[in-house]
Request: fold
Amino acid sequence: MSSHVGHVGLKSYFSGFLFFVFLTLISYFVVVDGLLSGWHALVVIILCAIVQSTVQLGIFLDLITEPKPRSNLHIFLLMVTIILIVIAGTLWIMYSLNERVMPMMDMKNMKEGM
Reply:
């Protein structure tokens, strides 16, 4: 039985899996143990996510080694566009709600005035 599955061998799949577990543990311990805080933690998590998604496209989804990767690339770019729209919309809504919510002190003053 051949050790190759499709274009990439089982050894590549296994090393990719271990790499993803390692990157996931880095992100996990940065948050849970508080190894970094603030923007530094955010940058590490975003970098781990970008590296994971890039390697996943190459190893697991065969986006790079496929004979016609252009159609997969278009689907991937559409997915990224939709995700960015959802994230931007969510942040916009949260920012807008934060500006429109009255502070607690103002609400106490309104109740006392009634």
Summary: Confidence is low (pLDDT under 50) at residues 1-5. Helices lie at 10-32, 39-59, 69-100, 104-113. Residues 68-114 form one domain.
